[in-house]
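Usage

Read records sequentially. Each one opens with the input sequence:
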Amino acid sequence: MSEPLCTDPSNEDFEQEEHELEKSGLYSELTRRRFMKAAGAFSAATAIGLPIVAWAEGAPEARAITLKVNGKPEVLSLDMRTTLLDALREHLDLTGTKKGCDHGQCGACTVLVDGRRVNSCLTLAFAAEGSDITTIEGLAKTSDPQDLSGLHPMQAAFLEHDGYQCGYCTPGQICSAIAAIEESKHGALSIVSLHTGKTDKPEMTDDEIKERMSGNICRCGAYPNIVAAVRAVARGVSA
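and closes with the structure output:
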């Protein structure tokens, strides 16, 4: 019977090669080889149906948490690693807050925490415990608004100015816009304020609005109408 053309190296062979690479200072090659070794073992286990070994020992521990969301206390049992976004969407069924990039870059997940806008995809649920959390579902004046008068002024302005197209980013845009106006009222400055020299209660001009809303992306490109909606609320006028 003929010998196979090649055989898999033994553990002793790997260890010897690793020792030689380490002596030679070839750490990048050493890391690559270790990765390939681990990946090969994982692939082989998957192919023959062996149970996948968890990298972390034991199942994640769930702990009780009380979140005050839209004025109502919600008692949950969550993994310590759960983001506020997942707690809202997956555990409280508040799906108005959207998951976009999941990296804090698009603003679709923006909610208000103690009046401040935060990216809920980057905020741990446990970090928000004890705070007042407001989502898009909690902005309206009534639980079942029948017309514009029952909505938050910013929600009404987005409707009046057609500040959306597909609507996916709209909840985050509205929450962010509300906080941006409050920040301006309290004297918070933007880079536009510094460039224009208007650092004493800067007016919400179009440039100020664009800068302060720059963390919220609208892939449909409804920016002119979004700016118009925010401007109208900031100046206390309607369409």
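Summary fields computed downstream for this record:
- The longest helix spans residues 27-47.
- The first strand starts at residue 62 and ends at 69.
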